[in-house]
Design brief:
three-stranded antiparallel sheet, 142 residues, single chain, 5 strands, two-stranded antiparallel sheet, 4 helices, alpha+beta, 18% strand, elongated, Double Stranded RNA Binding Domain
């Protein structure tokens, strides 16, 4: 399959990505005034047929503020001098953003408390340390 591998189980075909090119600032001198080197990759997360329903929900929830009103993710690259390099950069950024968004949530922490034996050991150690310090004191002179 010709596409962009995001995770082991998710690959996005290139026909689901919308690539837009425009003039960019940044490095390149006069080159940036004449060539469309800035790359914007747009991926419709909400309408993607290659994400399962659970993956889509997780991505929308985790991407939150990065999505536009239609549920699309925009990634822009204009760092390099050439369109090809910026295209690689934008697609790489898209991959890392989506991989992070699709990562499963960590299991919730279950609070624990120390065992009675552990509490008793801690208190015994505190008592022993206090006893050592008491023995180091100088005797009061009468």
């Amino acid at each position: 399959m010709n596409g962009i591998r995001v995770t082991r189980s998710v690959a996005i075909p290139e026909h689901e990505l919308d690539l837009k090119f425009s003039r960019s600032g940044g490095p390149g001198g006069q080159n940036v005034n004449t060539r469309d080197t800035k790359v914007e990759v747009i991926f419709d997360v909400a309408g993607s047929s290659f994400l399962g329903s659970r993956q889509r929900e997780r991505a929308i929830r985790n991407l939150g503020g990065r999505l536009d009103a239609e549920g699309r993710l925009h990634v822009i690259a204009s760092d390099a001098r050439t369109q090809a390099q910026n295209r690689e950069l934008a697609i790489g950024r898209l991959q890392s953003i989506l991989a992070e968004a699709l990562r499963p949530d960590p299991a919730p922490r279950r609070p624990t408390k120390p065992t009675r034996a552990a509490q008793e050991r801690r208190l015994a150690a505190k008592h022993a340390r206090g006893q050592t310090k008491r023995l180091r004191r100088t005797a009061p002179e009468d």
